[in-house]
Amino acid sequence: MKFTIQKDRLVESVQDVLKAVSSRTTIPILTGIKIVASDDGVSFTGSDSDISIESFIPKEEGDKEIVTIEQPGSIVLQARFFSEIVKKLPMATVEIEVQNQYLTIIRSGKAEFNLNGLDADEYPHLPQIEEHHAIQIPTDLLKNLIRQTVFAVSTSETRPILTGVNWKVEKSELLCTATDSHRLALRKAKLDIPEDRSYNVVIPGKSLTELSKILDDNQELVDIVITETQVLFKAKNVLFFSRLLDGNYPDTTSLIPQDSKTEIIVNTKEFLQAIDRASLLAREGRNNVVKLSAKPAESIEISSNSPEIGKVVEAILADQIEGEELNISFSPKYMLDALKVLEGAEIRVSFTGAMRPFLIRTPNDETIVQLILPVRTY
Amino acid sequence: MKFTIQKDRLVESVQDVLKAVSSRTTIPILTGIKIVASDDGVSFTGSDSDISIESFIPKEEGDKEIVTIEQPGSIVLQARFFSEIVKKLPMATVEIEVQNQYLTIIRSGKAEFNLNGLDADEYPHLPQIEEHHAIQIPTDLLKNLIRQTVFAVSTSETRPILTGVNWKVEKSELLCTATDSHRLALRKAKLDIPEDRSYNVVIPGKSLTELSKILDDNQELVDIVITETQVLFKAKNVLFFSRLLDGNYPDTTSLIPQDSKTEIIVNTKEFLQAIDRASLLAREGRNNVVKLSAKPAESIEISSNSPEIGKVVEAILADQIEGEELNISFSPKYMLDALKVLEGAEIRVSFTGAMRPFLIRTPNDETIVQLILPVRTY
């Protein structure tokens, strides 16, 4: 194998596939990055067996030559060293050549690295995915779907299925749900696919987070192919494979209250900042909660109390307070997480009593719902 | 105590004095910040008994009113909470009022915090320093003196005196020396004081690092008052006290070779980047070294070898190579540290053999010297 490649593109691809490489793996070759040079270009692959990422650099793009292949071939190089080395090479082009015994020469200007490589035939094959049907979603929408749900997955392995986001496709609609059983995030999106196609899978939260990091913010379509055990996201020159979580995702529709007893509409930023301030003292309190008091036709009060340190109270002018008077306590972290992913200047919070889950939404937007369970404080 | 103050100035002062506050202290009141409101303005003090910082906010600056004192007084507030609270307050002004039992109200807009304070009379007094004689150094020079030496102090407590920087004043010249016994940094500066004034003290490296962080980059003079046990730096509205280290600093003058057998002059940036690249593999090697080979009238070669991973070799065009042929090994970290604080496009390295300390300097600048001990590799 021997080729010359643009350094900036090499660095970018290596950084992308590096996101799938774990230093804690039981399969030693997976600490490496597989490089395959073919007549069309060079591909880089990283994997931790849960996630696999392949990034392809074509020989040419438009009229520009990016790679010059002198001899096709393949090699596996230690990911940690290879990624640090390419970042620090001195010139705009890099030559990579495999010699005898998998010894690999990396040359750039007057710098020459010799790295001991491994046989690429020993590298596990990527999942084979038959792609009869793909779902297509614009990259920016996909990133939003992830951002607005993935933060709510469970970080505890006691119920592994909750560490993933449930993707359910029914009647040309995608429904993404994440919950750690204390709060829930739900996001819907219309899909341009036949009504009778349906899926119901759980994608590991970690996979979605890593996927989101390597996708650029643009409107290009990402092809998504879902199988029994794997999901494949195909963006331009990047393939992202993730295994799916085994098991049935709990039915969460019954959790979401259909009616409400108290409704408030407030300025998102003012509300968020007041919760953020109250959380400063809540962190010390035994319950780690802030309290919200709403009196219709008056104002909303956010407060928190940490006996040893002190207390904080703040009034917020609501744009609307309707229904019953309410005193409710909740985790400020969950509230901040939910508020940060909602778009729009105003938010609507719908309560059905101090002990029932409540909903946070953007007025007139039914595609996203955040739900939080209150905390009993007595 | 009751006053109203500009939030941005309050935040700035609190952040400055916070640098002296440690959460790991045996004196509970030192986890707090002392606030004293007088007729002239408000002062804030933080201390960990080694370092004490006082920041003063005057009532007025130019024509602008910064503080309105309604009632003088004092209080100590928990540093961690107070500093986070003031950063997150909603409005441009803040009202701070002490009520009964040291209960302190912090108001800004509609947000109201009640913090349990402590009696300011319980707060330890700052060192009393008689300032007959002060040394004056422009702030930007002082920051350079610190930056170019403090990185070389020892981080090990086996010889506590080496965790500080030796400041020696003699014949109107300040000589700052730091060493961890593997490398040494030395910086001189002319002072505008009488020739017969002399000092020889050791300032803890940590104190100098924190001092440097709170000084702005400008040319205003900092007054430095040195006593037997303390040093005080007086900048505009800030007093920075540090205890001095006990003991005699070793005499390092004999360490510095007066002659040289091999001299090279190279481009600083090219040299630094080559060392940086070689260090990628050096980190894995048993000795953690890079090797430099210089052949007069030819070129310089930087290399490193880590048998399991691979090796790297790079030639550098030298502007000058004079004297004997040389092969020498050293820690790339020490070399990078030294190169980063040297100014100028070129550097001169003077060797006196593979086993002797060598010097790194900027050509024609005798005010700064970096010395590194080589590593024996056989």
From TrEMBL, chains A, B:
Keywords: Cytoplasm, DNA replication, DNA-binding, DNA-directed DNA polymerase, Nucleotidyltransferase, Transferase. It is found in: Cytoplasm. Signal peptide: none annotated. Residues 136-251 form the DNA polymerase III beta sliding clamp central domain. The keyword ATP-binding does not apply. Residues 1-127 form the DNA polymerase III beta sliding clamp N-terminal domain. NCBIfam families: dnan. Belongs to the beta sliding clamp family. Forms a ring-shaped head-to-tail homodimer around DNA. PANTHER family: BETA SLIDING CLAMP (PTHR30478:SF0), DNA POLYMERASE III SUBUNIT BETA (PTHR30478). This is Beta sliding clamp.
